[in-house]
Here is the input.
Amino acid sequence: MSTIRWTEAHTARSARWHSESAVAPPGRVVVADDRMRAEVAYRLACEGTALLWRGDFPNARQLLRAMGRRIDRKPPRPGGSPAESFHLQRRARGHRARVLGRLLVLLEDDYSLRLRRAPDVRRACAEAYGAPRDSVVVSLTELLGVIGAEQWRRKGVAVPAVSARIHPHYGVFAPTRGEYVDLVAKTPLPASLKQGPGRRTAFDLGTGTGVLAVVLAHRGLDRIVATDINPRALSCARENVRRLGFTGGVDVVGPALFPEGRAHLVVCNPPWIPARPTSDVEQGVYDPDSAMLHGFLNGLADRLEPGGEGWLILSDLAEHLGLRTRRELLTAIESAGLHVLDKVDTRPRHPRASDSTDPLHAARAAEVTSLWRLAARPGGITCRGRGR
Here is the structure.
């Protein structure tokens, strides 16, 4: 357990330190309140000093925005290639997160926030962190994320494909990009699901909120086994499955990538960018060395029923950023003893795809999300399919 220490009113104090991004506790902490100017706060934070806020809560948020504006005065320079631009932007975002993350707040042993005009954050913190134990210090940026996550959890995300709302938990990637959900909802099911007696089984690997498992259940499959390696995702998926009345047909198991047994259909929507995540939420976007992608491909052939299919949902954004080539993807598919039956494409509909101010706009504007229909290669014979 990490501990953070500071001096307040000539008294040495300490509390438990928590960071969802695994940031080490700051070595130097000073107490700050409404009298602190943004320029001073920004300079101290850039130097590595953390600021424990003791003033008005709305003023803390205002100070955070003022510090952010100072950081944004120096946007990352464009790189000589899309890959270099991506890494420079990630570096700049990391610097921004570190500096802003040095504005801290103290949560009491019941998660209450004893600041003037502070909201009641106890429920949001309990949902994100579990039952309270003792006082804990967190960054204000993390706390604002916790508050926002509770609002998402209450409101939910509309999923037209199932005429319902999915409720994401803190630390679980929300299904706000509907194009990949629509691909799973509309692509014709494998012929093996329509032949002969027996239960029609599907696996949903890396289920997250459980949205794709729910889509498959909505399409009439008899049994869906959903997996994830994130305990928060497992809890979230179980809650959504229960809320929507699919507990009789959907099992959520893990932590694991593949469950036991075989299936007629194995669906996987791995993180699309081969880079290191810096928080639990980013695990839904970044996949270091494409580990989950390769794990899915290499294990797929042995988990398919005869005539079964694997559905890989993957954006080509990494290709436009120069982080992965199409040839590398096709080679990985072939090396895993698989071949491509078909590829169904769709264009993204999210606002960032049309944001010309985004440093990665050219790559985002060219992005295509695809559902790759994969099958085990019969007799080990190479079949490159239609994926080129």
In short: The first strand starts at residue 3 and ends at 8. The mean pLDDT is 92. The chain is about 35% helix and 20% strand.
